[in-house]
Amino acid sequence: MLDIVVALLLLTLSVPILAIAALLVRIQLGSPVFFVQERTGLGQRPFPIVKLRTMSNERNAGGNLLPDGVRCRGVGRVLRRLSIDELPQLVNVLRGQLSLVGPRPLLPRYDAWYTERERRRFDVRPGITGLAQISGRNGVPWEERLALDVRYVEQWSLWLDLRILAATAGKVFQGSGVAVDPAAQMLDLDKERQTTCVSS
């Protein structure tokens, strides 16, 4: 109930911001305005997550996409820094696919690489924000990030959710912890664990 009420309120208040942001994305990056990607949610079921598009489709001479840090600039960089690109996920909340707070939903290709304990993240709805996000966002190593997700599941309370929401608001206003190109800071989970398996 809290998710629905707050999501409806935020979505209503953010309509003017979303409209302006969508127009700027359309002008600078073209169509589509929204970025839709499959993620893994509650019970390890897939669902489409919706964000405002923040990157161009620029490619090199070989036809490969340029790094995120190159393709995300101008309006895209501003939308990420202010987390405005995340606002359309409020629709996912209203659909029951996301909660306001919970483990961030990750790519389906990571599913095979979780430990048994880390799979506890699928016992609750994923969230727009979570314990890992207020602890450093993109700068937190995978092991620590997934451990924080499990800790959230095991220690969940309404008070914890409220604390996380308050801390998230502070980080958004400060624009802290956002990486324009996360891949430049750390490997994707599957690549990191493949590397670990090979080396061991």
Write the layout of secondary structure elements.
Blueprint: H1 2-29, E1 34-40, E2 46-52, H2 68-71, H3 75-81, H4 89-94, E3 99-101, E4 127-129, H5 142-155, H6 158-174, H7 189-199
Parallel strand pairs: 3-4
Antiparallel strand pairs: 1-2
Descriptive labels:
single chain; 200 residues; mainly alpha; two-stranded antiparallel ribbon; 4 strands
Structure description:
- With 200 residues, the protein is mainly α.
- The protein has one domain (2-184).
- The protein has helices spanning 2-29, 68-71, 75-81, 89-94, 142-155, 158-174, 189-199; strands spanning 34-40, 46-52, 99-101, 127-129.
- Residues 1-173 form the Bacterial sugar transferase domain.
- One of its GO terms (molecular function) is phosphotransferase activity, for other substituted phosphate groups.
- It holds the Pfam family Bac_transf.
Give the strand tally: 4
- Give the count of helical stretches: 7
Number of domains: 1
Q: In oligomeric terms, what are we looking at?
A: single chain
CA distance, first residue to last residue = 47 Å
Largest sheet: 2 strands, antiparallel
Radius of gyration: 17 Å
- What is the H/E order? HEEHHHEEHHH
Give the % helix: 40-55%
Average pLDDT across residues? 90
Name the strands of the widest sheet in spatial order. 1-2
Shape: globular
User: Which consecutive residue ranges, at least 5 long each, have pLDDT under 50?
Assistant: none
Class by SSE composition:
mainly alpha
Report the β-strand fraction as a percent range.
5-15%
